[in-house]
Amino acid sequence: MQRSGxxxxxxxxxxxxxxxxxxxxxxxxxxxxxxxVVGFHELLGFINNGLFGPFVDGLLSFGxxxxxxxxxxxxxxxxxxxxxxxxxxxxxxxxxxxxPPPPAAPQPAALPVSLLPDWIRLWPVVVVPTLGGLAVGLxxxxxxxxxxxxxxxxxxxxxxxxxxPRLPLLRLLxxxxxxxxxxxxxxxGPSVESGGNLGLWVALRGGLSPQSQKAxxxxxxxxxxxxxxxxPIAGVFFAFEGSFSAIQGRPSLRAVLVxxxxxxxxxxxxxxxxxxxxxxxxEVRSPLExxxxxxxxxxxxxxxxxxxxxxxxxxSERLQTWLAKLPPGVPTAVxxxxxxxxxxxxxxxxxxxxxTVEALLGSNGGVPLxxxxxxxxxxxxxxxxxxxxxxxxxxxxxxxxxxAVLGNCYGQLLGESGLHLPVAEPxxxxxxxxAAVLAGSARAPLTALLxxxxxxxxxxxxxxxxxxxxxxxxxVERWQGLADPGLLGPDPIEEQRxxxxxxxxxxxAFEPEAPLVLPxxxxxxxxxxxxxxxHGHCLVVAEGSWVVGLVTLADLQRALNAEPRxxxxxxxxxxxxxxxxxxxxxxxxxxxxxxxxxxxxxxxQLADLEDQLTPNGLRQVPVFDVQDARTAALPHGLxxxxxxxxxxxxxxxxDGMARxxxxxxxxxxxxxxxxx
Length: 676
Description:
The longest helix has 45 residues, at 16-60. The protein has helices at residues 16-60, 86-89, 118-121, 124-142, 150-157, 169-181, 188-205, 210-229, 232-243, 253-271, 290-314, 317-324, 330-343, 354-361, 369-388, 396-414, 426-442, 445-456, 462-480, 492-502, 524-533, 553-561, 589-592, 606-616, 629-632, 654-675, and strands at residues 64-65, 113-114, 517-519, 538-543, 546-552, 600-601, 620-624, 643-644, 648-653. 55% of the residues lie in helices and 5% in strands. It is mostly helical and 676 residues long. The strands form 3 sheets. Strands 3-4-5-8 form a 4-stranded mixed beta sheet. It has 3 domains: 17-47 and 128-271, Clc chloride channel; 287-498, Clc chloride channel (Orthogonal Bundle); 505-562 and 582-675, CBS-domain, CATH 3.10.580.
């Protein structure tokens, strides 16, 4: 066949038209996501400047006596490109001393005389978040479903849940009101979730295959983060590392790239190419500072753990059940009031907080350490309250703010305010702290590294970022476990599914066929033939009466593909030693086994099964009936000399888990219909 021709021969499989078709769909998802993010930012600015701005001005003028002379005409302020609630953030910030002061008056003039004490004059800081919380609560109650969150979208892409996307209009409206009224959350969560919903919605409307649906969901996720932060590279990595890292069958990289580029182009054309954060130039004093950045990674891991734990506590079933008993709108209104009360002393907890980040990055140790330490605590508290009470927003922005404050503290302790070491200024440690806290809390060190690199565009910052972000992510993963979603957090749909899995025993997911147990010395080619004949996915390796390993179909294929084979001329492909040919060694089954035997005890639940299947890339896991409590407590790993073959009870699979979940849901519906 002429390879240069345009048409393939008959019978030749061709994936090019399908691939080009998928890329076109991905570009459409990227454009739609970019337009949605642009509309989100415009709506956020309108709510802040068009609604809350005049409202706040009117509230601030209450109780003031006007001076006899005409009011002073100040020069016009530049356009506000910072976070919402600029008017509120300018109230009571003098005690912190790290935000820029107001412009100096050209002539002395008498200021309005307040008739109220200072703490009473700040009452709009409490009123505005309360009213915003009430509006968000009523929107959640009477506006309908906001659509599935990112964990549910991933479950839909993986086939664990039926695909039910929604256009992100209500979600973006709720996020605009939440952030515009002062909720201590970020805009990236709604942007990413909106992109994922748009990707799945487009895939369903286009009648695409399940694999293409997964690709477009990932494309929407990447497009949402790329548009929200104007960082396309970080968006691409987040789609694979942060959201779809544990899903079988990775989405198309080309589709994700196309969507991220398309959304970034849309946002840059309509919003400009100004970065979301203005970061200073990174300063390097000495390569010997690298161990100090590792110390910052250790401290950042503790902050990441605290943030993730607080968000998980706010999503707990017990607390949410109690909040659901209150009238509609009351939980979010109370949460807004609490955030407002905190903001009476620390207005920096309001809104996204990027103004605070930029101020900290421009402060070379001018902020008192005690003030920063207290700010860490109140920012954590305000974020937890905003998340638990139902405000709409993400966790990336709070993680960046906490990282900047923590890094500035750390830099001051190393420098003139503490150990007096010859190190870089606190802003350098603040930038690295942002990446370290984000990496640990989002379980995405590469995303955090590339995000800060795209914002700074300074190659010198890469090594400290790698050290701190990698250590922070590794430690938090060790403490929280692989199954913990971090900042993503399970949404209500995913939480309901996890509760169902936790209530079902692992035996409900057994495959009807008996596990295939083969001796360790069996040739890999023979094992592959038997596994294919049995239509299985994995087999158990045994030495005598002890199970010593687990081998999947992919493990056997890799071992056989790496086997040396003779050429068509009959010569051996293996190297010759002393001019004497050597016979290729045929791999045995024991050579194909995995490092650890991933297994579960018989008393485990389906939630434990999912926690073992997903991070290990498996479809089936052997289940043993062991009586030793110490052995049964092991989630994986192989006791010495192994597990007895007689204790093997079956293979619990992903398909069996889906069948068990479907049976459970059907039973619940039947019982509900019977009660009704």
